[in-house]
Amino acid sequence: MIYLDYQATTPLAPEAREAMLPWLAGPEADGFANPHSPHRAGRAAAAAIEVARDQVAALLPPGGRVIFTSGATEALNLAIIGSGRSRLAVSAIEHAAVLDTARFVDHGVTLLSVDDEGLVSPDAKLPEGANLVSVMQVNNEIGTIQPVAAIADRAHAAGALFLCDAVQGAGKIAAPANADMIALSAHKLYGPKGIGALWVRDGIDLQPLIHGGGQEQGLRSGTLSPALCAGFGAAAALCTSLGESDARHVEMLWTRARGLFAEWTLNGSETARWHGNLNIRRDGLDVARLLSECRTVAFSAGSACASGSGRPSHVLRALGLSDKQARTAIRIGFGRYTGVDELEEAAAAINAAAGSQGV
Q1: Catalytic residue among 164, 229, 294, 305
Q2: What is the pLDDT of residues 47-76, one digit of tens each?
Q3: Burial class (CB in 10 A: 0-12, 13-18, 19+), 38
Q4: Domain with 182 in it: what CATH number?
Q5: Within 10 Å of residue 81's Cβ, how many Cβ atoms?
Q6: Which of 187, 206, 238 is the last residue of a domain?
Q7: pLDDT per residue over 216-263, tens digit each?
Q8: Is 276 within 8 Å of 334 (Cβ atoms)?
Q9: Which of 65, 359, 343, 98 is CA-nearest to residue 218?
Q10: The model scores a pTM over 0.90
Q11: How many structural domains is the chain composed of?
Protein backbone atom coordinates (compact mmCIF):
# COMPACT_ATOMS: atom_id res chain seq x y z
CA MET A 1 0.00 0.00 0.00
CA ILE A 2 1.29 3.45 -0.94
CA TYR A 3 0.14 5.84 1.76
CA LEU A 4 -0.83 9.33 0.53
CA ASP A 5 -3.37 10.44 3.14
CA TYR A 6 -1.22 12.47 5.52
CA GLN A 7 -4.01 14.95 6.29
CA ALA A 8 -6.15 12.13 7.74
CA THR A 9 -3.27 10.86 9.87
CA THR A 10 0.48 10.58 9.71
CA PRO A 11 2.49 7.38 10.24
CA LEU A 12 3.72 6.94 13.80
CA ALA A 13 7.39 7.94 13.99
CA PRO A 14 9.57 5.01 15.15
CA GLU A 15 11.11 7.32 17.74
CA ALA A 16 7.66 8.11 19.14
CA ARG A 17 6.86 4.41 19.38
CA GLU A 18 10.11 3.77 21.24
CA ALA A 19 9.34 6.57 23.68
CA MET A 20 5.97 4.99 24.45
CA LEU A 21 7.12 1.42 25.10
CA PRO A 22 8.54 1.88 28.65
CA TRP A 23 5.15 3.24 29.74
CA LEU A 24 3.32 0.22 28.35
CA ALA A 25 5.28 -2.18 30.55
CA GLY A 26 3.71 -5.05 32.44
CA PRO A 27 4.05 -5.95 36.12
CA GLU A 28 7.74 -6.75 35.70
CA ALA A 29 8.49 -3.00 35.48
CA ASP A 30 7.15 0.25 36.93
CA GLY A 31 6.02 1.83 33.68
CA PHE A 32 2.36 1.00 34.24
CA ALA A 33 2.08 3.28 37.27
CA ASN A 34 -0.60 5.94 37.62
CA PRO A 35 1.06 9.35 37.11
CA HIS A 36 -1.24 10.85 39.73
CA SER A 37 -0.03 8.47 42.46
CA PRO A 38 2.44 9.84 45.06
CA HIS A 39 4.81 6.84 45.17
CA ARG A 40 8.11 6.63 43.30
CA ALA A 41 6.72 4.85 40.23
CA GLY A 42 3.87 7.33 40.00
CA ARG A 43 6.25 10.27 40.29
CA ALA A 44 8.41 8.83 37.51
CA ALA A 45 5.37 8.58 35.25
CA ALA A 46 4.37 12.14 36.14
CA ALA A 47 7.89 13.35 35.35
CA ALA A 48 7.70 11.72 31.90
CA ILE A 49 4.47 13.61 31.24
CA GLU A 50 6.10 16.91 32.16
CA VAL A 51 9.01 16.21 29.83
CA ALA A 52 6.48 15.59 27.06
CA ARG A 53 4.61 18.78 27.96
CA ASP A 54 7.80 20.78 27.52
CA GLN A 55 8.49 19.08 24.18
CA VAL A 56 5.03 19.98 22.88
CA ALA A 57 5.31 23.50 24.28
CA ALA A 58 8.46 24.00 22.19
CA LEU A 59 6.20 24.03 19.09
CA LEU A 60 4.07 26.83 20.57
CA PRO A 61 4.52 30.47 21.61
CA PRO A 62 6.01 31.36 25.01
CA GLY A 63 3.76 32.70 27.72
CA GLY A 64 1.18 29.93 27.83
CA ARG A 65 0.44 26.46 29.17
CA VAL A 66 -0.17 23.13 27.47
CA ILE A 67 -3.23 21.14 28.52
CA PHE A 68 -3.27 17.53 27.33
CA THR A 69 -6.58 16.29 25.92
CA SER A 70 -7.86 13.22 24.07
CA GLY A 71 -7.35 15.00 20.76
CA ALA A 72 -7.94 18.26 18.94
CA THR A 73 -11.73 17.88 18.99
CA GLU A 74 -11.76 17.90 22.78
CA ALA A 75 -9.23 20.74 22.81
CA LEU A 76 -11.43 22.86 20.56
CA ASN A 77 -14.52 22.09 22.63
CA LEU A 78 -12.64 23.08 25.79
CA ALA A 79 -11.54 26.33 24.17
CA ILE A 80 -14.93 27.30 22.73
CA ILE A 81 -17.24 26.15 25.50
CA GLY A 82 -14.79 26.57 28.37
CA SER A 83 -14.03 30.18 27.45
CA GLY A 84 -17.62 31.14 28.23
CA ARG A 85 -17.80 33.30 25.10
CA SER A 86 -21.19 33.48 23.41
CA ARG A 87 -20.81 35.63 20.27
CA LEU A 88 -18.68 33.77 17.78
CA ALA A 89 -17.19 34.30 14.34
CA VAL A 90 -15.46 31.40 12.57
CA SER A 91 -14.30 30.80 9.03
CA ALA A 92 -16.69 29.05 6.66
CA ILE A 93 -14.11 26.32 6.00
CA GLU A 94 -13.36 25.29 9.58
CA HIS A 95 -13.28 21.65 10.63
CA ALA A 96 -16.55 20.30 12.00
CA ALA A 97 -15.01 20.28 15.48
CA VAL A 98 -15.11 24.08 15.34
CA LEU A 99 -18.23 24.61 13.20
CA ASP A 100 -20.49 22.26 15.15
CA THR A 101 -19.23 23.41 18.54
CA ALA A 102 -19.60 27.06 17.56
CA ARG A 103 -23.19 26.43 16.44
CA PHE A 104 -23.88 24.66 19.73
CA VAL A 105 -22.74 27.74 21.66
CA ASP A 106 -24.04 30.44 19.32
CA HIS A 107 -26.95 29.53 17.03
CA GLY A 108 -26.30 32.75 15.14
CA VAL A 109 -22.57 32.21 14.69
CA THR A 110 -21.07 34.34 11.91
CA LEU A 111 -19.27 32.45 9.14
CA LEU A 112 -16.36 34.39 7.66
CA SER A 113 -16.32 33.78 3.92
CA VAL A 114 -13.30 32.80 1.84
CA ASP A 115 -12.34 33.83 -1.68
CA ASP A 116 -12.01 31.44 -4.60
CA GLU A 117 -8.52 30.51 -3.42
CA GLY A 118 -9.82 29.43 -0.03
CA LEU A 119 -8.48 32.37 1.96
CA VAL A 120 -10.17 34.46 4.63
CA SER A 121 -9.51 38.16 4.16
CA PRO A 122 -7.37 39.64 6.94
CA ASP A 123 -9.83 42.56 6.78
CA ALA A 124 -12.89 40.35 7.24
CA LYS A 125 -15.68 42.21 8.99
CA LEU A 126 -16.45 40.83 12.43
CA PRO A 127 -19.99 40.99 13.84
CA GLU A 128 -20.84 43.55 16.46
CA GLY A 129 -20.09 42.18 19.90
CA ALA A 130 -18.02 39.21 18.71
CA ASN A 131 -15.99 37.91 21.63
CA LEU A 132 -14.39 34.78 20.16
CA VAL A 133 -12.95 34.38 16.65
CA SER A 134 -11.69 31.04 15.34
CA VAL A 135 -9.77 30.52 12.09
CA MET A 136 -7.67 27.45 11.32
CA GLN A 137 -4.02 27.84 10.38
CA VAL A 138 -3.93 25.25 7.57
CA ASN A 139 -7.10 23.88 6.06
CA ASN A 140 -7.37 20.10 6.36
CA GLU A 141 -9.01 19.62 2.96
CA ILE A 142 -7.26 22.05 0.63
CA GLY A 143 -4.16 23.02 2.59
CA THR A 144 -4.56 26.81 2.37
CA ILE A 145 -2.60 28.76 4.98
CA GLN A 146 -4.74 31.49 6.47
CA PRO A 147 -3.45 34.94 7.53
CA VAL A 148 -4.09 34.00 11.15
CA ALA A 149 -1.73 36.56 12.69
CA ALA A 150 -3.54 39.44 10.97
CA ILE A 151 -6.96 37.99 11.84
CA ALA A 152 -5.87 37.59 15.48
CA ASP A 153 -4.90 41.28 15.56
CA ARG A 154 -8.30 42.19 14.14
CA ALA A 155 -10.06 40.02 16.74
CA HIS A 156 -8.12 41.65 19.57
CA ALA A 157 -8.94 45.12 18.26
CA ALA A 158 -12.61 44.13 18.49
CA GLY A 159 -12.16 42.89 22.06
CA ALA A 160 -12.38 39.18 21.12
CA LEU A 161 -10.20 36.20 21.89
CA PHE A 162 -8.58 34.38 18.98
CA LEU A 163 -8.59 30.57 18.76
CA CYS A 164 -6.52 28.77 16.15
CA ASP A 165 -6.99 25.17 15.04
CA ALA A 166 -3.35 24.41 14.20
CA VAL A 167 -3.81 20.67 13.75
CA GLN A 168 -2.52 20.60 10.17
CA GLY A 169 0.19 23.20 10.70
CA ALA A 170 1.71 22.26 14.05
CA GLY A 171 5.21 20.87 13.70
CA LYS A 172 5.41 22.11 10.11
CA ILE A 173 5.05 25.90 10.26
CA ALA A 174 5.33 28.31 13.17
CA ALA A 175 2.30 28.69 15.39
CA PRO A 176 0.65 32.14 15.40
CA ALA A 177 2.45 34.03 18.15
CA ASN A 178 -0.52 36.28 18.93
CA ALA A 179 -3.21 33.61 19.28
CA ASP A 180 -4.94 33.22 22.63
CA MET A 181 -5.61 29.49 22.29
CA ILE A 182 -4.17 26.89 19.91
CA ALA A 183 -5.37 23.31 19.39
CA LEU A 184 -3.22 20.50 18.04
CA SER A 185 -3.31 16.72 17.64
CA ALA A 186 -0.46 14.24 18.03
CA HIS A 187 -1.44 11.92 15.19
CA LYS A 188 -1.16 14.72 12.62
CA LEU A 189 2.54 15.23 13.43
CA TYR A 190 3.76 11.61 13.55
CA GLY A 191 2.59 10.89 17.09
CA PRO A 192 -0.02 8.46 18.48
CA LYS A 193 -3.79 8.74 18.14
CA GLY A 194 -5.85 9.49 21.22
CA ILE A 195 -4.00 12.55 22.48
CA GLY A 196 -3.95 16.22 21.62
CA ALA A 197 -3.41 19.49 23.41
CA LEU A 198 -4.78 22.96 23.94
CA TRP A 199 -2.30 25.78 24.42
CA VAL A 200 -3.78 28.61 26.48
CA ARG A 201 -2.15 32.00 26.84
CA ASP A 202 -1.33 33.05 30.41
CA GLY A 203 -4.14 35.03 32.01
CA ILE A 204 -6.98 33.31 30.15
CA ASP A 205 -9.30 31.32 32.38
CA LEU A 206 -11.31 28.34 31.19
CA GLN A 207 -14.03 26.25 32.78
CA PRO A 208 -13.66 22.46 32.60
CA LEU A 209 -15.82 20.30 30.38
CA ILE A 210 -15.01 17.07 32.24
CA HIS A 211 -15.47 16.99 36.00
CA GLY A 212 -14.03 14.51 38.45
CA GLY A 213 -10.65 14.32 40.12
CA GLY A 214 -9.36 17.63 38.82
CA GLN A 215 -6.35 16.15 37.06
CA GLU A 216 -4.60 18.10 34.29
CA GLN A 217 -4.61 21.54 35.89
CA GLY A 218 -8.21 21.24 37.05
CA LEU A 219 -9.45 21.40 33.47
CA ARG A 220 -9.51 17.80 32.35
CA SER A 221 -10.34 15.17 34.96
CA GLY A 222 -9.18 11.64 34.30
CA THR A 223 -5.95 9.66 34.42
CA LEU A 224 -3.41 10.77 31.85
CA SER A 225 -1.62 8.16 29.75
CA PRO A 226 2.16 8.49 30.18
CA ALA A 227 2.61 6.40 27.03
CA LEU A 228 0.50 8.68 24.85
CA CYS A 229 2.08 11.80 26.34
CA ALA A 230 5.59 10.41 25.82
CA GLY A 231 4.80 9.54 22.21
CA PHE A 232 3.34 12.99 21.59
CA GLY A 233 6.38 14.64 23.15
CA ALA A 234 8.86 12.58 21.16
CA ALA A 235 6.99 13.32 17.92
CA ALA A 236 6.96 17.04 18.72
CA ALA A 237 10.68 16.99 19.47
CA LEU A 238 11.32 15.32 16.11
CA CYS A 239 9.35 18.06 14.35
CA THR A 240 11.63 20.59 16.04
CA SER A 241 14.86 18.82 15.08
CA LEU A 242 13.78 17.67 11.60
CA GLY A 243 11.75 20.72 10.63
CA GLU A 244 14.09 21.99 7.93
CA SER A 245 14.73 18.61 6.32
CA ASP A 246 11.02 17.74 6.45
CA ALA A 247 10.18 21.02 4.71
CA ARG A 248 12.77 20.44 1.97
CA HIS A 249 11.48 16.91 1.40
CA VAL A 250 7.86 18.05 1.14
CA GLU A 251 8.80 20.84 -1.24
CA MET A 252 10.56 18.34 -3.51
CA LEU A 253 7.52 16.06 -3.47
CA TRP A 254 5.19 18.99 -4.19
CA THR A 255 7.19 20.06 -7.22
CA ARG A 256 7.17 16.50 -8.54
CA ALA A 257 3.47 16.03 -7.82
CA ARG A 258 2.49 19.20 -9.67
CA GLY A 259 4.17 17.79 -12.75
CA LEU A 260 2.66 14.34 -12.34
CA PHE A 261 -0.85 15.79 -12.04
CA ALA A 262 -0.42 18.65 -14.51
CA GLU A 263 -3.73 17.87 -16.25
CA TRP A 264 -5.74 18.25 -13.05
CA THR A 265 -7.16 21.51 -11.64
CA LEU A 266 -5.77 22.62 -8.29
CA ASN A 267 -8.28 23.52 -5.57
CA GLY A 268 -7.18 26.41 -3.39
CA SER A 269 -4.25 28.76 -3.58
CA GLU A 270 -1.09 27.58 -5.32
CA THR A 271 1.19 29.64 -3.08
CA ALA A 272 -0.59 30.32 0.23
CA ARG A 273 -0.79 26.67 1.20
CA TRP A 274 1.02 23.82 2.91
CA HIS A 275 2.71 21.96 0.06
CA GLY A 276 2.12 18.56 1.62
CA ASN A 277 -1.54 18.84 0.59
CA LEU A 278 -2.53 18.46 -3.06
CA ASN A 279 -6.29 18.83 -3.58
CA ILE A 280 -7.17 18.47 -7.27
CA ARG A 281 -10.16 17.74 -9.50
CA ARG A 282 -11.08 16.64 -13.03
CA ASP A 283 -14.45 17.43 -14.53
CA GLY A 284 -16.62 14.36 -14.97
CA LEU A 285 -14.53 12.18 -12.64
CA ASP A 286 -16.32 9.44 -10.70
CA VAL A 287 -14.27 9.56 -7.50
CA ALA A 288 -15.88 6.48 -5.92
CA ARG A 289 -14.89 4.44 -8.97
CA LEU A 290 -11.40 5.94 -8.92
CA LEU A 291 -10.90 4.96 -5.27
CA SER A 292 -12.13 1.45 -6.01
CA GLU A 293 -9.76 1.01 -8.95
CA CYS A 294 -6.72 2.34 -7.05
CA ARG A 295 -6.85 -0.03 -4.10
CA THR A 296 -3.08 -0.09 -3.65
CA VAL A 297 -2.99 3.66 -3.05
CA ALA A 298 -4.36 5.32 0.08
CA PHE A 299 -5.68 8.79 -0.78
CA SER A 300 -8.89 10.64 -0.03
CA ALA A 301 -11.97 12.16 -1.57
CA GLY A 302 -11.93 14.81 1.16
CA SER A 303 -11.80 15.03 4.93
CA ALA A 304 -11.61 11.65 6.67
CA CYS A 305 -13.92 13.03 9.35
CA ALA A 306 -16.68 13.57 6.76
CA SER A 307 -16.12 10.44 4.68
CA GLY A 308 -19.28 8.48 4.04
CA SER A 309 -21.57 11.45 4.68
CA GLY A 310 -22.52 11.70 1.00
CA ARG A 311 -22.48 15.48 1.23
CA PRO A 312 -20.28 17.58 -1.05
CA SER A 313 -17.38 19.26 0.71
CA HIS A 314 -18.41 22.47 2.50
CA VAL A 315 -14.85 23.67 1.95
CA LEU A 316 -14.97 23.29 -1.84
CA ARG A 317 -18.43 24.79 -1.99
CA ALA A 318 -17.15 27.80 -0.03
CA LEU A 319 -14.60 28.33 -2.84
CA GLY A 320 -17.53 28.71 -5.26
CA LEU A 321 -17.44 25.22 -6.76
CA SER A 322 -20.73 23.56 -7.65
CA ASP A 323 -21.76 20.34 -5.91
CA LYS A 324 -20.93 18.50 -9.12
CA GLN A 325 -17.43 19.97 -9.27
CA ALA A 326 -16.83 19.36 -5.55
CA ARG A 327 -17.60 15.67 -6.05
CA THR A 328 -14.81 15.33 -8.63
CA ALA A 329 -12.01 16.27 -6.22
CA ILE A 330 -9.40 14.09 -4.55
CA ARG A 331 -6.87 14.90 -1.84
CA ILE A 332 -3.33 13.57 -1.93
CA GLY A 333 -1.18 14.10 1.15
CA PHE A 334 2.49 13.33 1.66
CA GLY A 335 5.23 13.96 4.18
CA ARG A 336 8.32 12.72 5.96
CA TYR A 337 8.09 9.06 5.03
CA THR A 338 6.86 9.42 1.42
CA GLY A 339 9.34 8.33 -1.25
CA VAL A 340 9.38 10.02 -4.64
CA ASP A 341 9.19 6.59 -6.25
CA GLU A 342 6.00 5.88 -4.32
CA LEU A 343 4.52 9.19 -5.44
CA GLU A 344 5.34 8.44 -9.07
CA GLU A 345 3.87 4.94 -8.89
CA ALA A 346 0.71 6.23 -7.23
CA ALA A 347 0.31 9.03 -9.76
CA ALA A 348 0.61 6.56 -12.63
CA ALA A 349 -2.14 4.41 -11.12
CA ILE A 350 -4.45 7.37 -10.40
CA ASN A 351 -3.94 8.95 -13.82
CA ALA A 352 -4.50 5.64 -15.58
CA ALA A 353 -7.71 5.00 -13.64
CA ALA A 354 -8.95 8.52 -14.36
CA GLY A 355 -8.08 8.13 -18.02
CA SER A 356 -10.06 4.91 -18.22
CA GLN A 357 -13.14 7.02 -17.39
CA GLY A 358 -12.46 9.20 -20.40
CA VAL A 359 -11.92 12.35 -18.35
Answers
A1: 305
A2: 999 999 999 999 999 999 999 999 999 999
A3: exposed
A4: 3.40.640.10
A5: 17
A6: 238
A7: 999 999 999 999 999 999 999 999 999 999 999 999 999 999 999 999
A8: yes
A9: 65
A10: yes
A11: 2
